[in-house]
Amino acid sequence: MIEVTGLTQSFGKKNVLDDVSLTIEQKEVCALVGRNGAGKSTFINSLLGLLPIKTGKILIKGTEQRKSKNEIAYLPEKFMLYPTLTGYENMVFFAKAATGHAEETKMKEILTAVRLWDDKDIPIKGYSKGMLQRLGLAVTLYQDSDIIILDEPTSGIDPMGRKEILEILKGLKNKTILLSSHHLDEIKQLCTHVAYLDGGKITKYPVQQFIKLKHLGGMNT
User: Fold this and answer.
1) 144 closest CA partner among 197, 207, 101
2) What order do you get walking across the sheet with 55-60 strand by strand?
3) Which pLDDT band, with edges at 50, 70 and 90, does 219 fall under?
4) H or E element that contains 204
5) Is pLDDT of 166 > 50?
6) How far is CA 129 from CA 111, 134, 140, 216, in A?
7) What is the mean pLDDT of residues 62-79?
8) pTM for the full predicted model
9) For residue 108, what pLDDT is reported?
């Protein structure tokens, strides 16, 4: 589904990504892990086509990234919504922006899945952080892309809100997901693999192998 080969991205004289190669197979849920400043955002922006590729190649479902259209649904860490609009109105706006139409049955199904249907007519300036994140996730899911990239989807959310987001993500079927996260517990709950970014290089591991290798086994499994 995602094939990255020999990707190098630099800023000035510094290589942020240095000859990176990574394959994420269909239906894998892969965590993107690394210290702050390791290059996670650069890698994600390269996948999304927001950064031109200097060296290397990215294939999305077998098609060069620059020719691939709407193959990836992306939820950034800070999703910009319209606070004076209701949840439903935001959903309509972004659905039309992404796909050119807003199908009422589909919107109801997704808003119900993220537990926001009963709150759809409330202006989102009255939503909690968790509700806003679930609305952002609903907008992302409306695109119905096979590939989803999530950038810190539970950042800044209280424990109950995190649990709600994780339950929704666990329910996603037949999706290939790249998840940027700092939370080992949610990685263990959701992910099949870890792509560890360090020193400009990415190494991919099965989740349990990564935990053992990095001596993280003291966490609950």
Assistant:
1) 101
2) 14-24, 2-11, 55-60, 63-64
3) very low
4) strand 201-206
5) yes
6) 16, 9, 17, 29
7) 82
8) 0.89
9) 96
Provide the token pair at 143.
């695109």
- Contact (CB, 8 A) for 158 and 134: no
**SS3 per residue for 25-94:** CCCCEEEEECCCCCCHHHHHHHHCCCCCCCEEEEEECCEEHHHCCCCEEEECCCCCCCCCCEHHHHHHHH
Short-list 167, 156, 189, CA closest to 77? 156
* CA 165 to mean position of chain CA atoms: 12
Task: State pLDDT tens for residues 199-209.
Answer: 999 999 999 99
Where residue 197 falls among pLDDT bands split at 50, 70, 90? very high
Answer for the pair 28, 12: CB distance below 8 angstroms, yes or no.
no
Neighbours of 110 (CB within 10 A): 21
Q: Report helix, strand or coil for 125.
A: helix
